[in-house]
What does this fold into?
Amino acid sequence: MRIVIGEGSCGIAAGAQKVRSALEALITEPIGSTGCIGMCYLEPIVDLYEGKTDKEIEDFLMRYYKPFFPSRSQTGELAYSFKDKLDPDTGYMVIVFGYDGGITTPLTTVEFCTKPAGDPSKVTFDFEYGAMTSRSTYVTITPSDVSVSYLAIVVDEETLEDYGGANEESVLALIDENIEFSIRMGEFENRAEFVRDYSHRGVKTGSFGLVPGMKHYTCAVCVDKDGEFASAVAMDPFMAPEENATTASVSAEFGKFFDGDELADLDGDSYAEYAGWAVLPVEFTLKENAAAALYTVYPVDLLEEEGATDEDIRNIMLDQSLIDEFTFFAEGRVDIQLEWDVEYRLFMLAFDEDENASGLITADIPALTKEEASDASEYRPIE
It folds into this structure.
């Protein structure tokens, strides 16, 4: 019998690791793993393979995969590549059949097993850089052996200094810290889970954030299935371009505000999240040569208490890891949820197409009171 657990990001989020732990405590057979198969609503999925008959396979396919057949069926000759998508040293079955609202032909099946992964200690990496601005770059990472899993990061020299300098030990310490932090925050139960979600095999192209004018290192290290490092760290240094001055700008217009409780009462399905808040519609407009903009809001009392300067706020807004957590995209109409009777300051940054950032743009938001809120009937939904 062969057991396979769906352990893509959707499976992990649904509790696949707990299922694995429970099964490992009950049986001695090896348990395989697979990534996302497009059935996220059924996760965590466990497949059992033990000499299933064609009828059992047909029933399984029609039960779990039927919704996908109409859009994925093919006619004529088909050549499909599974390059870099299969796990090493793992058995698979290819199933081919006719389909017209149901299975119309006998199944044709072919089983095969992928080769074991290569020696991670012998893997080398090639790094190629694409379009680069002062704040981001595309990097294509090509390993010498596509069967081996690896983690990759781009890190600035200043960050590495906090870990002891630009060397292999510092890179491993930084990656270790990120893995352990994710585990402590409950995103993953262990290092193996983290690696299954974040490691790569084969050629990987990704976009990475940069600090303008600073030396950076693209780093890659092989990992085993348990999440342990399995090779030396490959480090490739490069310089990020300096930031240039820009005329990019953004403006914000606001006036009427609303009681979130009244909006939730008006339409609970659409506005339940507004309950308990003052809701301030804001219209952001990109100006000059702005290609994008960000905004954030802070209580004025908190800014004064912390002694936060405009430069402090600008640095926070330029931290790409905080987007959608503390900073948000400013374009078009946005409903900002605020506490009642608190003065706020709205901060904005605009970026041109080369990602050069403007100076900090601010607007004060007076304390909003329930007595002055506009009637909910005057609220216009975001289009």
About this structure: The first helix runs from residue 9 to 13.
